[in-house]
Amino acid sequence: MTLKRTPLKRGTKQLKRSGFKTKTALAPKKRKGKTKPERVKTLKKKLWTIFSIYIRKKDADHAGYVTCCDTGERVYWKTTHCGHLFHGTERNSNLGGNELWYYENNFAPQSPDGNYFNKDDSAKRYTLYAVRKYGIEEVDKMYKMRHTPKMWTEEELIEKYDYYKSLVEKL
Predict the structure, then answer these.
(1) Distance from C-alpha of 30 to C-alpha of 147, rounded to nearest angstrom
(2) In the chain, how many H helices and how many E strands?
(3) N or C end of the chain: which has fewer CB within 10 A?
(4) Is 92 exposed, middle or buried (0-12, 13-18, 19+ CB in 10 A)?
(5) Choice between 92 and 112, residue whose per-residue pLDDT is larger
(6) Predicted model pTM
């Protein structure tokens, strides 16, 4: 037995649409003539990218090699990480951050081995590096800055981005 296809007759009722909307209906509407200002979260990521490049590249020699702050090994700047002495507070969205974000003395080129593995020993060596390079007063200052909440504004982040972008272009 074969079934015949029959065309739909005019005047038949169409099925009701479900409550779900299509992807195009959910997409944000575009404003005509006005661009949406960049949000703080997006600016933080954008600034971190250029800031990380600057920290890893600023102490590089003519061949592009830097010395890891905790292992002492020479590593090409692109393969290093932008290591930090004190962690930020990104996990706590209520604080919005602290004063240590984008504070140059808190960051240094660090090899992936030093950053990911042996974290306890790495933290100790990094602390000794910071004390030798900046002094105990600066390390104490950074410790206090770590506990000082700061809400970064779009203007501050844009200003810092432009500053570090110009420094990277000069390197």
Answers:
(1) 40
(2) 6, 4
(3) N
(4) exposed
(5) 112
(6) 0.68
